[in-house]
Task: structure prediction
Amino acid sequence: MSPFKRGWVRFAAATVLAVGSQLTAATALADPAPPPEPTPAPAPVANGDPDPQLLHNITYRASATGTSRGAVVAYKIDDNNVNSDQPTLLPGMTFEVNTVLHDPKKAGMEISIQWPYGSNLHCEILVDDEIVAQADQFIAPRLFRPKDDPLYGTLQCGAPLDAPAPNKVPTPAPPPAPAPMT
Result:
């Protein structure tokens, strides 16, 4: 083999080695990962729930025995919003809806029927499959809406639906004027 050919063979071999070493993965030399630090237990929040990220399964149930046309069921769909449905509440049928809330103490619902109809209304609220609130009320049939009872024909169960949002702070009343000195 001529010295010229030998030079090209060496050059080709060196090129193959250089390119091949670039294509293979190199072994990483690293320190082992330090052991994880123990995490402290989360501090309970104001509502007593130890984990504010924990969601609770909420089940709302409503039923009526009697004539209950125009029924409206309003319920907390999440911690700040209310949803409503207009189910057909016939005797023996139960309206049921499921949702999730961060704070189960905010679970609330309201059932109302149109007057002049009357019925026995029943509601239940379950938090994580345990009944936490239930109510029953007989709504008598009436010809006219009672003027002194705007909630006639309505059954409230659990937390009130019209509670103010937690971000809004009510404005304080102005201090009373001092009495004039005589």
The chain has a mean pLDDT of 75. The radius of gyration is 35 Å. DSSP finds one helix and eight strands in the chain. Helices lie at 3-23.
